[in-house]
Description:
Muramoyl-pentapeptide Carboxypeptidase, domain 2
Amino acid sequence: MDNKRIPREVGKGVLPDHPAIKTPWERLISYHDAYHYVVRHISVIDSAFMQALRILIPDYVKRSKLLCEYNKKNLEQIFSSPYKRIQVENHNIHPFMEGGYIGAIFGDSGDERLCMPGRVNDFGQFRVEKELDACPWDIVGSEFCRCTTSSLEGTGVAFGGPSMEYNMVEAKGCGDLHCRVIAENRDKYPMPEKESWEKFGPIATSDQIKFTPEDKMYKEPQQFRQECDFKYRNGLNAEITHDQLYGGLAHPLGSDMVLNVLYPMIEAKEINKEEIENVIKCVFEASGKMTFGEHFAIKGLRDWLGVPGDVKDGRVLGGYIEVVLQALRAKYDIQNFDKEEVIYDINLAGLERRHPMLTKAYLSMWNGMGKTLIGSQWFVWRETEGVADEILRLKIGKKIDKFC
């Protein structure tokens, strides 16, 4: 094809639908690959947010404690709201069920949804054991492992009844082969009290652990396995289809957890919002530059997108951004797409996902990417004049900035 792009609407609905993302150069990325892509993409964004938090709160214990306590409280509040009833119905939780172990039901479906396949080795009112074989978030940091475990505990608290203390006694983010979450009822299994951030144990029932060898581990979640009929099924006979699972993928898991710490600190005047935004800008812009700092990475992306050899301008970055937007199911319109400039109108709700700082992060990251993916003459910025508040007008073009 020549450099003139075929409009997205041409041919739509004529041939049988193919579940895929389409790049500007008619290259298809399958549903399966898009699913895995968006999960890893979000984990990479989450990793950068965690690095920003490490700069803003350099003390490991303080940072971990805030992450655990704020996010445990947040999940407890969410599952104490009307949202709880919806999820109870979706997961076939019976009216007579109560107690902290119910958090494990939601944790199990969340694991499979986010490409963390594994197995429930034990599930009862006094002990739960979940073993995970994969985790796209194993790059974020050990604080994240602690935080997710604490959040899961908060989900269980919302159901009252016998409480459970959750520990991730093994964590892929710390170098273990598996992630292993074990919840224990402390009346049944007494242990000395410990601080809220200490979520790696010790536990009372280590002798009951069931270990799966590497050659028996799953590589795909239930929705991509034939023996599961390509659906998620839990122990209560609930079924969740792959399309329902994809609907929840765009949630910025780790970024959400980091921002749940930063927002209260801003309100309490413990930290300055402008300082946070500056750190996020610096971290994400550097991350963007490093993504394509090595030339083999440029070739890898071009091959993946199917970019013609003579296209060496803003369209290359624009094509990548379109893959991100389609994977996140964020709505956008193409205002211009040629060798001079690329302009998109992006629905902010789909990009921000309740967090305006995510948009600031993406803008900084994409601007950094442009420097190494295309060249230093290229910039990415937001235009606001004559644009509705709910729209991000993203422009990729050449300009000169003496303070960049």
